[in-house]
Amino acid sequence: MDLIIRNASVYDGSGVEPFTADLGIRAGKIEAIGDLADVQAAQTIDAEGLAAAPGFIDMHSHSDWVLPQPHHGEVLAPLLEQGITTLVGGNCGASPAPIVPGNEGRVKAVGRMLHDQALDYAWTDMASFLDLLERNGIALNLAQLVGHGTIRTGVKGGAPEPAADDEIAAMADQVRDALDGGAIGFSTGLGYAPGVFADTEELIGVTAPLAERGGIYTSHARSYVALARHDDPDQTPSNIRALDETAAIHRAHGVKVQHSHLIFVGDESWSSTDRALEHLERLAEQDADIACDAFPYVGGNTTLAVFMPAWALTQLDTAVSDPELRGKAKRSLERNQANFGMCWDDTQIMWVPDRALARYEGLTIAEIATARGTDPTDTYLDLLGELGPRARIINWNYSGRDDEETSLRKVLKHPRTCFETDTILTGQGFDNPASYGTFPRILGRYVRELGLLSLSEAIHRMTGMSAERMNIADRGFIREGMAADLVLFDPETIGDNTTRKAPDRSPSGIVAVVLNGQVVVRGGEFDASTRAGSILRLSDGRVTA
Ligand SMILES: [Zn+2]
């Protein structure tokens, strides 16, 4: 054996109770599980008292944009140091590939928000993107989605109306090409331009190749607030209708669908949590193969422009500077803040593109308004002009605020919830704590301290269940023949050490991480020089290295 892990308490990823065993690893795979006392190995780790789990799968990442950077290992070290071995990238409609005539400007503009170092965009289609990463080497495994926003811009530019039939066919051709090039599925970002301009019919048309190839559909949904339409006699909240829209892709094509980062934005939405989870369950029972994912914090990152009404997204400069349009935008913002139960104390600036303005990072809109002596909503509009729409923010009213996290706990407890970081980790600016503590926080705070779910179930939803959702066939479980992606941790001490004001603290309790058979994290520290990751590609409905 290349490596033997002795006497581990093995949580195999299926959700069953742990058993004690030695794990023998050879040529990047789990070769033997059992009593290996008589077997020799080049390396041995004594795991007495430790839990061994499959490597954690981050179901919703944006770090695919950082992987092409030569020094991505340093930037992404916090992910490995919390036990993540596989990223699902390309979420929220934003993938770095394909680059086609027509979308290059947008891809680079989105990239400007999601990575901070200069990047050589030396790829065109999905196949060449993944080949490039494979050639250069990557610090952890990548399962890549192709994004609707990337593809739509190539076909339709920024045009704010639903696509015509020939445009839908052109987009579907590109989706098919990306799936054939190794993408594992397709993502949408229906709260952002240009996804916000697409109707359900367009989404069903564009995703037709998923039915042929068997890839997953993931969706940053149309709405995460509970807003009823005036003309709807049932007063169905918008976040519930959004679940139906995700399920519609399953109904149309029979593929698995994943409702991304299930959050309840603003106080007024929290009370719709039970109804949304019941609706999710009902959809699942009616055989819509649907699940969701979530991060264990009441804050999440997004962009500064996210609050602006849809009509303003194509003319942000004018919407901020023209007195009449600004007045209209301000009234809409104030109405929404009141209706959704949001306040400008909740919105913290994380990163601004112009480094000369980095002094704003870490401050809330309300803090900046107080310092300037200006009205908070006006301050927001001013900042949109000054910092640009792509400034990153973190919003602290997702499924709770401060210690009030009843809604968040319901989501985390729900059996159809997988886990994700959904962070923008670039090495610059103020960090999202989820980049450092997501998985340890679930295992420490929600499993050990609060007893919200059992350790074996939590691990199942971080590993085996996540792999099955994404059709990943060669990992997610500790079984003979599976890839040797493993996390060794101390169940008594594992935990997240971040706070809202100190978001970049390393977690406790992660002892070692094994990636494709190579020990890449020792004593909690990632060796950033390693490139042990694999590209996972879709082929015949199965995703493997
Ligand atoms: Zn998203």
The number of distinct β-strands equals 22
The gyration radius over C-alpha positions equals 22 Å
Overall structural class, as computed from helix and strand content, comes to: alpha/beta
Largest β-sheet summary = 10 strands, mixed
Question: Which of globular, elongated, flat, extended, rod-shaped describes the shape?
Answer: globular
Round the mean pLDDT to the nearest integer and report it.
96
Uncertain stretches: none
Distance between the termini: 21 Å
**How many helices in DSSP terms?**
18
Helix content: 25-40%
- Strand share of the residues? 15-25%
Enumerate the distinct ligands.
Answer: zinc ion
List the helices and strands and how they pair.
Elements: E1 3-10, E2 19-26, E3 29-34, E4 43-46, E5 51-54, E6 56-58, H1 72-80, E7 84-89, H2 104-114, H3 126-136, E8 141-147, H4 148-156, H5 165-180, E9 185-189, H6 200-206, H7 208-213, E10 216-220, H8 238-253, E11 257-259, H9 267-270, H10 273-285, E12 290-294, E13 300-303, H11 316-321, H12 323-340, E14 347-351, H13 365-372, H14 376-387, E15 392-395, H15 406-413, E16 417-419, H16 434-449, H17 455-462, H18 464-469, E17 486-489, E18 510-515, E19 518-522, E20 525-526, E21 535-539, E22 542-544
Parallel strand pairs: 1-4, 1-5, 6-7, 7-8, 8-9, 8-21, 9-10, 10-11, 11-12, 12-16
Antiparallel strand pairs: 1-2, 2-3, 5-17, 13-15, 14-15, 17-18, 18-19, 19-20, 21-22
Helix pairs in contact: 4-5, 5-6, 8-10, 13-14, 16-17
The site of zinc ion has 5 residues, from loops.
